[in-house]
Structure formats: C-alpha cells, structure tokens
Amino acid sequence: MKQHPLCTDCEPELDITGLPIPFGLKREWSAVETRRQFLGRSGKVLGWAALASLLGEAALRGRASNDAKNPVTPQGRNNLGLPHFAPKAKRAIYLFMSGGPPQIDLLDYKPNLASQYNKDIPDSVRGNQQLTGMTAGQSRFPIAPSHWGFKQYGKTGTWVSDLLPYTAKMVDDLTIVKSTNTDAINHEPAIMFINTGNMNPGKPCLGSWLAYGLGSMNDNLPTFIVLQTKTNPKENNQPVSSRLWSSGFLSSEYAGVGLRSGGAPVVYLEDPDGINRDVRRKMLDALEEINRQTLAEVGDPETNARIAQYEMAFRMQASVPELTDLSKEPQSTWDLYGPDAKQPGTFAYNCLLARRMAERGVRFVQVYKRGWDVHGDVVGVLPVLCQETDRACYALVTDLKRRGLLDDTLVVWAGEFGRTVYSQGGLSAENYGRDHHPRCFTTWMVGGGVRSGITYGETDDYSYNVVKDPVHVRNFNATILACLGIDHNRLTYDFQGLDQRLTGPQPAYVIKGLLA
Amino acid sequence: MIAAERVAGAARTFLQRTRIPRSEWISVLCASILLVALPFAFHLDGHAHADWLQFIGRLHPALLHLPIGLIVLLPVLEIAGAKQAALREAAGFVLRAALALALPTFVLGYMLAYGAGDTGAIVTRHMWGAVALCICLMLCLLARPAWERERGFAYPALLSATLVALLWTGHQGGTITHGSDYLTRFMPPPLRGLFPSSGPEGANLDSFYTRHIDSVFEAKCVACHGGGTEKAGLRLDTYNNLMHGGKDGAVVVPGKPEASMLLLRVTLSPGDTHFMPAEGRTPLTSDEISSIRAWIRSGATATAKSVPGVSVTEERADPAPQPVGDYSQFMPEILHMQQAQGAKLVPVSAKASDGLILRTVDIAPSFGDAQLAEFKKFGPYIVEAELGRTAVTDACFDTLRTFTHLRTLHLEGTSVTGRDLAKLSSLAQLSYLNLSGTKVSAQSVAPLRSMPALHHLYLFNTPAEPEDTNARSTP
Lengths: 516, 475
Prior knowledge:
The complex is a heterodimer of chains A (about 525) and B (about 475).
Chain A: H1 23-32, H2 35-42, H3 46-69, E1 91-97, H4 103-106, H5 123-126, E2 150-153, E3 158-161, H6 165-169, E4 175-181, H7 187-196, H8 206-214, E5 224-228, E6 257-259, H9 277-298, H10 301-324, H11 331-337, H12 347-359, E7 364-369, H13 378-402, E8 409-414, E9 418-423, E10 434-437, E11 441-447, E12 454-456, E13 458-459, E14 466-468, E15 471-472, H14 473-483, E16 493-495, E17 498-500
Parallel strand pairs in A: 1-7, 1-8, 4-12, 4-15, 5-6, 5-7
Antiparallel strand pairs in A: 2-3, 4-11, 8-11, 9-10, 13-14, 16-17
Helix pairs in contact in A: 2-3, 9-10, 12-13
Chain B: H1 2-18, H2 22-41, H3 51-57, H4 60-80, H5 85-116, H6 121-150, H7 154-178, H8 189-192, H9 208-220, H10 239-244, H11 261-267, H12 286-297, H13 331-341, E1 344-347, E2 356-359, H14 369-373, E3 382-386, H15 396-400, E4 408-410, E5 432-434, H16 442-445, E6 456-458
Parallel strand pairs in B: 2-3, 3-4, 4-5, 5-6
Antiparallel strand pairs in B: 1-2
Helix pairs in contact in B: 2-6, 3-5, 4-5, 4-7, 5-6, 6-7, 9-12
C-alpha cells in the first residue's frame, strides 16, 4: 500500500528508485536531490553510507564546480547553453489553422485545373496514397478546380486567391512554403505530429521545447501561452486538446498556459472579496513552505514545478489584467484589426493579444483557429473562415512590422495538413468538398530569421505531390528552431533511453533556403 | 649567321662536355618541335570536332594526377638521395615514368579541348604551360646523367623550372574546372582581404542585371562560358559579352524571352543533349530562370534597377556583428547586480563573444536613468538594450553612448524627446533603433540619417512618423 509522503510514521520509507516510473524522471529526481536527502536515504544501510561518503562528496563537489561555471540566473536555464547561436528571432507567434486549410483555394494556384473540371485525377498522380475512410468508398475522384479566381500581387507577383485580399497585401514579406508535407492523414495524429514531432501523445510540443530551452523573457507572464479562438458552429470544428501544448516528459512548468476564449481570460484570477494581496501572499508563502517540505521528503521535481506555478499565478494576478486591457490601444489598432478585434475570443482579438504578448516578452504564443476541415460545402464555408482570419493575419504582421517587432519575432501560419484536389462527395458547378491530404500543403512564415518575399517548393499541376524542394514537418520544425537560435540536434532530453528531440529520432534538416 | 654559328658552337661544346648521345638530343628536339607545332597544326578554333576525341580526351583528368605526383616526388628523391644512394637511383626511373605519363596526358588534354571546342585565355595558357612542362621534363632527362657524374647547375635549374611549370599549369587547370576564384572563394575573410577582388567592371552595381542575372551566370555558367573557357565562343562574364553572343549568334533577344537561345537552353528537359548547364552541373533554379525571363522580357538592359513582375525583396545585409570579447570575469558581478536590481543581462547565445542583452521588462516602470548608469561598466559587452516602456529619459543617452557595441536599442514608449539623439552617432554598429510611441519629431531624428549602419528605425505613433504608416523607415 502506498504511503502518503507526509505521513511521518510510515514503516517503509518511500523510495523513488523503487517506483515504477520512467528512468528519466528518476534521474532528474536524483539531479535535484540535496545532500540531506541523499545521505538520509543512503544512511539506512551502512554500506550505502560508506558509499555515500565517498560518492556523495565527489558528486556534490562536481555539482558545485558546475554551478560556478554555469550560474543559474533567475530566469533559469542558462546551464543548457542556449541559444546555440545568435538567434534572429527571440520569440514566435504560431497561427495554427486546425483542420487543414485547402491550399488549392488559397495560395497554391493551379491554373490548369479549370480545364479538367470533373475529370478523374490520373492514377499516376494519385499513386499509392492512402485515402481516408471518408473518400475510400468513392468510385471516382473528380477534379474540383478552385471556385475562386487568383491574381498576382506585390513586387513578387505572387498568386493569391480572391478569398485573401489582406494576405495578398503582404505577400512581399511572406515566406510561402508550398511543399510542406506530413506523414499522417487524420487530424489527431497529424496535429500531434506537427506540434510535437510525434503522432502519439506524450512528447513535448514546440512551445514547451522553446520554454525549456530558452526560458522566459518576462518573469511575470508565462513563457508559452495558448489562445483558442471561439468556434463558429457553421464550421466543421475538430477538437483541439491540451495534449497539443503539453510539456510531455519535460517538467510541467514548460507546458503552454491556455487563456480562455470567453469571459475572464484566466478564471479566479481576481482575489475574492475580503482577500487582499497581502493575505494572498501569506497564504502562498505557507503553501510554499509545505510544498518545500514535500520536496525535501520526496524530492519529486514536479513539486518544484508546482511551487513555480503558484508563484507564476500570483504574478499573473497583476500582469494579466494589464495584458488584456485593450482600452489604451490607439485608434490605429482598431483601424488595422477591424471590428472583430473588440470581441474577446475572435481570431482578430487573439492576434491583437498575441502582439501585446510579444511586446511583453512572452516567448511563444500559439493561436488556434479551428474549423478548416472543409469536407463539404467549400464554397459556403471557406469565405467565412477567410473572413475571420485573413484580415487579422495581415493586421498582426503589419502591426508587428510597424512597431519594430517583426525583426525579432517569427510568425508562422500552418495547419496540420492540406486538402485534396478531387472532390469529396458530389462535385457540382456550384460546390464541392475536399478531403485530407498529407502529401503537400501550404504554410507561411514571416519575420525574424526567414527570407521574406519568396515562395519555396513546388507542387505538381494537381497540388497533389511535391515536385521540388519538399519541406517535411520535421524539417519545418527544425527550421523554426533554427530561427530561434537552436540546433534541433542539440536540444535534447534523455527520456526512455533516448535523446529525445522535437524532430524525433529520424534525421531532420534545417531548410537553408527558407532562412534569411 | 655568326651568332647562330656561335650558339651552335656553344651547344656542340655543351653536348660534348656532358656527353649526351646524339640520338637522345635529336629525339628530344624533334619531340619538342612536335609539341610546339601541335597547336598550330590543330588550331583550337572553338568548334567541336569528332566525338571520339572527346571520348578519349575525357580520360585527361583521370590520368593527369599521376605525372604530377611523380614530378613532385622527384626533388624529394634527389635531395634525400644525398643520404641514401638508392633513392637517387630511383629518381632516374621516376623521371622517366613522369615523362612517359606527361606526354600522353598532354595529348589527352589536347584531344579534350580540341574535341569539345574549348577556347579562351585560360585554356590556351593551360596548354602552353603543359608544353613547357613536357619540354622541361625532357631536358631534365637529358641533363641528369651529367649531373649524376659531376653535379653542376643545369639539372637543378631545369628541375626547378619543371616544378614552376607544373604549378602554373596545374593552377590554370584548376581554374578551368572550378572557376577563377576557386582559391579565394572559401578562403577565411582575413586572408581573402589580401587579394584584390575584381568586381563587375563598368557595370552598374545597383542594376537588376548585376544583382540577379550576372550573379547566376557567375555561379553556374562562367566556368565554361567565361574568360577562361569559351565553349561555343560564348562568354557570359560581362554584359557586353553576353549580348555579343556566341559563334551561333545572339543568345539574348531583348523583349523576346521565347526567342532567346539562352533561355531556351536552360529550360530544356534536363535529359536533352542541348540542356545547359551541361554535363550534370547544377541546373538553374526556377527562380533564377524566371528572373532571367522577366529581365529579357523587360528589354535586357544593363542598367534597369528593377523588372516588373519579378520577385526579389532585397535583404539589406546588416554588417557582420563584431565580437565583444569575453565578459565571463564579470559574471559574478553581473549576477549580483541582477539580484539587487531586477534588470537582467542575458547572453545572446552560448558564444560569449556574441555579447549580452540588457533586459528590463520585469521591472520596466521602475527602471530609470540611474539604474541604467549602473550598467556602464558592462557597456562594451551589451549589444542589445531593451529599454521599451521604462522610465528612462533623455539623460539615458549619456550612458548609452558608452555601449560601444550596441546594435539594437529599444526606447519605445519612453519619455525621450529626441533632443539628444545625436549623441548616439558614435555608435557605429547601431542598426536598429525603436522610438515608437515617443515624442520624437522629424527634426530630432534627422541626425540619425547620417548613421550608415542604422537600417531599421521605427517611428510608429510619433510626430516623426512617415506618411505611409506601414513603411519600415530606412534612412
């Protein structure tokens, strides 16, 4: 039977080394263990004590000298030796288009498709691509050209759909990647894969790796914040869960902090009536004392994480109201973002918040926008999605740019996969649907570290296969890390016997062609 | 006549003294005459000849390194032979072997150039270098027996000449294969400074041609179509040469990309025999091709600065950051100060010489000029000062001017008035200055325009804001 750690009269002392928990955790545990814990535990057995006096001293000396060499500064993790090289971007904002935006209707212009309306996609193009359960039963795969026209914009002459009039205005700044591709064809594995580098849950996401590796820039706000956009019932919303911003095997300090999309951004943030700051402080001090006792007794690093999170919550009581108070925004902000930005929970509002977070030194902000899963009624739903996001994306980039933040902020726009050129369900002159497509999808980046005004990679005439410069999700993530001064091969964490990293055990490469 | 007789007399005495058999010197003379006559008999006229010539000629690179190795071995054997007689004995054999290989190498090389129709100054120099090398080697062979008996300077001098000829010829060969800058291209910058680089002569440095067309040719074409080799008589190394075309006429028809041979050849399918760049060299990227196409369509001028419908956002290269030196000695002090004051000095990266960032965001409202002044001591190591929304005032510039390596300065949302901005002019590396949301006026930022490195100046929400609010102001 398990003993409560604070139960002082328990017979067998709780021993971390005997628990059925991952080795990595045990090791991390022993790394934070104090001399007292170590000697206290090993003193049980005479032999252990002897060993402890030999090894313990050496180990402690070793650690002490390490500390002198790599002093741990208040913001934390300098002992990791990061960034590996001088970064171009200090922070990143990730606009995540959950559901899989249809690249053929937005940025991947395929003029030749118009003449092939309702013809079957050639088998040679489709190859052995696995189909989802939603189209596997279809007898034919009729080509659905985009319903919308495309025009060339900017000095770069980039083709952009009529659905994205605002994005079209900034194409000369964007780094458009037409050849992003992934391994998974369904939402959950694909969205896990692009966020954590693994289709199975349990691995830390990009934001957690950044929080772990680079640490915080502002002690009063979380290092990694997640903003969800309120769903629109007209759209096909796939679930987005906290697994996507989980810290996996890293300490929970590095998990994303989700702000709510409606009502108070953080619940119970305000002190209840009758409790003032001092009382709250005293309560937290007492709580911390108890937590420290637990830590001394058990040595679980997650206790440390808990202490840190309470302190963060206390500081957020002061910093979050200031962060979310938009009353001092000048009129130019509202002119830029549009009226939606005044409604909490809209994508425009979240983009504005993301800019404010970037200003205040939040390392990584991820804004989720659901609803891009357009299996049917593309003609009806896609304009709504674009109307919700197009102007806000442009506003965010422009706002960062005019305030001088785009030089060291990386903005990424991506979904988990693309959509098929052939219609799911019936194809008519007025409407069509598009199924999931992992072999190619279009993403864009802009800001610190990436080459602006380029289109990278090419797809074939059906936007089905990548024909030039493929960018696998692994390499996409490696490139993002590179912009932030991180060598993806060197940001690792030993867990389950493997030097875990965001890009997984398979080789991954930074796409040099995307870098400035 | 008398002079000729005198030379002949001297040669006769020399031959008698050195006891070179008649048959040997006559055959060397004949071989030399043959070598020298070859280029005149089969002139390198820029036309390709029979395929079998190229077929055999392509073995030239496979063979040429062997005689080079042997020739380099020669002086080693001769010198070491002073101690070990066996080595000197071997040198005789090595010399013969070197010659026996050098002659076929030359012939193969000539077949390669003649067969493929290579011409140009470098090819010619390479060829004459090889002729000289072969003759030197033969003379070495003649002079060596005498040297073995009674020493003298003839053989060492000839051997030295051989080595010089080898070096020269090899260098020309390297230039043909890898381009004229093959030695300097990847040289560390300090060394490279010793070599004067030849920029595009007479061309407009700012033109679309120089920046986007010439650079493509330079990287992918001039190895075969340049000053060194002129395959098909075509040189792409300057604008005039490009427009002059090759032996088959013009390759660029201004305004008509579809009629321009140049574009045609690079857009064929890579398997086509006429596809360029030939022989499996790196093809042009689609971006490069579309730049060339748009440039031809717009008239193919040497001076136009931009071309409608084409890409290219300029990356204005910020100067390479200067290393700031090692601050690790100050680390305890820095840490102590952080704890006392709350503002942080954060390393830019794991490399100490990348410098420190002064980060104040945690305590911004209480961070003023006095707090900033405390960082004076670490000033030379600070490359970025994040002072946005702090309480600093115009007095901060007196401290900031001592941050000699400062590259990035955030002063957005502070109460600086811009009165003292001129004090920043001593910061030669300052490339980013953010004054958004301050009260600076257009007049007060004027002195900043004279700072050459300052490429990013932000004046959003200030009286000095330019008309076009979205524009990133670049002085």
